[in-house]
Structure formats: C-alpha cells, structure tokens
C-alpha cells in the first residue's frame, strides 16, 4: 500500500517533471507565465518588502518611547516619506541639469573627436574605423535624445500607463505593508495555526525555522547593502563636490549609491556614467573621477564592506553572479536587488536536504 508520504513525494516529482517538460518544450511561454504571475503578485511582494524594512523603526519607537502601534507606524511612514521627498528635491533638479548638459556637450564631443581624428590619426586605418564607430554611436545617441519629443501618441500612452502601473503597485504595496505591520502578531499567529493544521509538527517547525533564517538573511543583507552603499554615496558626493569639483555631483553620487547595492556588477555600472559624462566636458576631470572611484571601490571592498556586511549570506562569487543574472533576467531590477538573499536561502535549503539524505543513508 502506498503511504501518504509516498503520494506527496510522487506528486512533487510529477510537478517538477511537468515544469521541466514545459520549460524544454516552450521556455518562452513558461518564463512569460512566471513573469506574469510575478507582476500580479508584485504589490504583495512590495508590501512584504516595505514591512520588513519599516518593522525595525516601528519596533524601536514602540520600545524606546512606549507608544501605541498606530502612532509608531505613522511616525515611521511620515519620516520615510519626508526623507524620500528631501532626496528627490535634491536629485531631480540635478538630473534635469545633467540631461541638459548632456544634450549640449554631445555635439561638442563629436566635433572634438572629428578634429582630433582629421589632424592627428587619420592615417591609421584601425583608429579611423574606431573613431567612425564612436562618432556613429554618439550621433545615434544624440538623435535619440533629440527625438524624445517626437514620440507617437501610442508610445507616450504606453509609457504613461507603465509608469502609472508602477506607482499603483508601489502605492498598494505601501498600503498593504501598513496593515501587515499594524496586525502583524495576529497575522503571524494565524499563519502558524494554519501551518500546524495542514502539516505535521516536525514540518511546521522546519518551515518556521526556514522563515526565521529568511528574515535574518534578508534583513541583514538588505540593510547592510543599503548602509554600505549610503556611506559610499556620501563619500562619492564629497569627493565629486569638494575634491574634483564637478557640477552634477549630487546626481552622480546618487548613481554610485544606487548601483552599489547590486553586488559585483553594481560598482562597475556605477562608474561608467560619472566617468563618461565628466569626459564630455573635461577629459582631465574624467581621469580624476576614474582614479577617485577606483580608490573608493578599494576602500569599500577591503574596509567598509567587510565591516558592515561581514559574510551575511555565505555565497561564493559564482553563486552571487549567477543569482544576479537570473534574477535580473526574470524579474528585472527588483530581481537584481533581491536575488542574492533568495539564492542564499536556496543554498541553505539544498545544504540541509543533502545533509539529511546523507544521514538517512548512513543510518541504514
């Protein structure tokens, strides 16, 4: 007679087999369905993400000042809203100024390259081809920037709808996070009761242990990355503004902060924009920007990062790079940011499963 445990095992194997067959038979449809499901559930994911990030502030206010839950929540949300508003008020004008400078400097850069080419290196065929390629690329970029205003009404409508959808999902996520935090004890208790009702005590305890591990890794990793990137962003701003003295220091340091959250790839991506944009109006300053960012990355990798992050996820570079690539290709920018802690969880679960299987075989 087939036991209940064997039935569950066979059902799980059948489910995995169907998924593998669907992926081999039609990978595009399977991936699009996964993306579609992720888009539908994105407000819930955003709500859980906001809950995990805001929960420490709420708990701190409740314990420190002995205030009610609703008041601590309101203070936390209002404080974060004010902080985001101040940052946006600083960054958006710098962004507009940067874009206007870019539009003005690209034609000058093209003319400069053409002049250098005709005077000094026109006799070298390889460099001639390289310069032509650079000029073509810059001309295409300039054309695209100048043609932004000539987009069709359909393109503009699609863009507006996508932005509206993004803001709607974020708004719904914020609202959901508020109710999750307001009633978190009852929600946790209900989930525990449901878990113990539908499965064995041993499996329920294992799942709760898994959730504690998830909460620890996620919170410490995300908070650690943000804090580390914030320090690097502030140092980048101070260096850009007061040492190198470039005009768009706020925007470029914000780019450094944002991209530094992404492991391994982020610092390189964040270095490209400041260097290339500074090069348009001052190649010498671009060289200093390159040197400064290189030194900053060394300080981050050898001093600041290890002090703040330690080894929070315990993943090798191969795991991290693979997680970022897969997460980004499936779920976009959110997948890039969240892929590493989820990869750490997968590794922990695989490790526990392998150890359990080895122990079972050894006991036999």
TrEMBL record:
**Keywords of the record:** Cell membrane, Membrane, Transmembrane, Transmembrane helix, Transport
One Gene Ontology cellular component annotation? Answer: plasma membrane
InterPro entries for the chain = AI-2E-like
Topology term for the membrane: Multi-pass membrane protein
**UniProt-annotated location(s):** Cell membrane
Transmembrane residue ranges = 7-24, 36-58, 70-92, 156-182, 222-244, 250-273, 280-299, 319-346
Q: Does the keyword Nucleus apply?
A: no
- Major localization listed first in the record, in broad terms: membrane
What the entry lists under Pfam families is as follows: AI-2E_transport
Keyword match Transmembrane: yes
Signal peptide bounds? none
Question: In terms of domain of life, where is this protein from?
Answer: Bacteria
Example GO BP: transmembrane transport
Family per record: Belongs to the autoinducer-2 exporter (AI-2E) (TC 2.A.86) family.
UniProt protein name = PF01594 domain protein
């Amino acid at each position: 007679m087939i036991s209940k445990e064997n039935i569950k095992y066979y059902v799980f194997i059948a489910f995995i087999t169907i998924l593998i067959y669907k992926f081999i038979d039609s990978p595009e449809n399977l991936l699009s369905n996964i993306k579609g499901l992720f888009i539908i559930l994105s407000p819930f994911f955003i709500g859980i993400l906001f809950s995990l990030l805001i929960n420490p502030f709420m708990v701190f206010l409740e314990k420190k000042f002995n205030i009610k839950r609703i008041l601590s929540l309101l203070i936390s949300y209002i404080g974060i809203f004010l902080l985001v508003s101040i940052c946006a008020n600083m960054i958006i004008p710098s962004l507009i100024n940067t874009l206007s400078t870019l539009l003005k400097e690209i034609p000058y850069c093209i003319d400069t390259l053409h002049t250098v080419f005709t005077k000094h290196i026109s006799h070298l065929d390889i460099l001639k081809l390289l310069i032509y390629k650079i000029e073509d690329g810059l001309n295409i970029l300039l054309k695209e920037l100048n043609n932004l205003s000539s987009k069709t009404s359909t393109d503009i409508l699609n863009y507006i709808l996508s932005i509206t959808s993004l803001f709607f999902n974020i708004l719904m996520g914020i609202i959901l996070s508020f109710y999750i935090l307001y009633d978190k004890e009852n929600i946790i208790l209900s989930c525990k009761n449901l878990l113990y009702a539908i499965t064995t005590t041993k499996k329920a305890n294992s799942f709760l242990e898994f959730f504690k591990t998830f909460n620890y890794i996620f919170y410490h990793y995300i908070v650690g990355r943000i804090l580390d990137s914030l320090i690097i962003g502030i140092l980048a701003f101070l260096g850009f503004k007061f040492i190198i003295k470039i005009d768009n220091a706020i925007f470029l340091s914000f780019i450094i902060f944002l991209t530094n959250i992404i492991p391994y790839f982020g610092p390189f991506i964040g270095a490209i924009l400041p260097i290339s944009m500074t090069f348009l109006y001052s190649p010498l300053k671009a060289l200093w920007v390159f040197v400064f960012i290189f030194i900053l990355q060394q300080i981050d990798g050898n001093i600041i990062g290890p002090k703040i992050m330690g080894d929070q996820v315990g993943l090798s570079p191969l795991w991290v790079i693979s997680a970022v690539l897969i997460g980004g290709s499936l779920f976009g920018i959110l997948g890039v940011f969240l892929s590493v802690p989820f990869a750490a969880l997968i590794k922990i679960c695989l490790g526990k499963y392998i150890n359990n299987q080895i122990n079972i075989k050894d006991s036999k």
